[in-house]
Amino acid sequence: MKKTIHVSNQGATLDTGRRNFLKLGGVGLAIAGLTLIGCDDDDFQMVDDSKTFDLGTGDVGILNYAYALEQLEADFYTKVVNNFYTGISSVEKEVFTDLYHHEVIHRDFFKAAISGATQNVLPKLDFQYPNVNFSDRNSVLATAKALEDTGVAAYNGAGKYITNPEYLVIAGKIVSVEARHASAIRNLINPGSADFSGDDVVDANGLDPAKEPKDIVSVAGGFIKTRFTWKERGIV
Question: Cα separation of 104 and 99, whole Å?
């Protein structure tokens, strides 16, 4: 049986007063008040707190996977904007603040969506950044670039596993924003260059890469302290 999920991002903040490259272009407003059709009951798994959390099966697993990645990005940008690196420009502050707001909205959206469909909601994760110097511009930008490129590849790779067309539409809207983030960071690193759509992320067919969840978690896992599994996708 399908369950209906009513999602609202009430309370989330986003500066829409400025028209620039990073604006959501209606994605944030589309999420507000969105009604989704939930996953099949067969996809739901009860949580056993005595064991390592498993993301689940079917669309619930995909949503928890996306939620984990959005938690990571929101946590990273929270640290960036709470203590900007030395010598940061006003443009860079503006970009990082926009990215922070976007990722918080994405994170809170997934939490609300999953909570409305199942009890199998990924808990709040703990993160670590052992090789990141948040006081150093190059370190912060390099990490942001890695996270955004990884996020784009993650959504592209997970799309084929989504069975609910409503979820697929939302995933497409969010990955387009993640791609804007990636381009913006690349432009900060090398202003005015073609790096915003470099050959390392856009192939000969004009497409972004798509990576399997197992490959994504192996890369992003270095930042994630809280262990989880996703047995359906071979992550144990």
Answer: 9
CATH among 1.10.3470.10, 1.20.1260.10, 3.40.50.300, 3.30.930.10 for 4-233: 1.20.1260.10
pLDDT-derived band at 206 (thresholds 50, 70, 90) equals confident
Taking only the tens place, the pLDDT of each residue in 16-39 is: 333 343 443 333 433 433 334 444
Handedness of CA 65, 68, 70, 76 (dihedral sign): negative
pLDDT exceeds cutoff 80 at 85:
yes
Per-residue pLDDT, 50? 54
Q: What are the boundaries of each domain within the chain?
A: 4-233
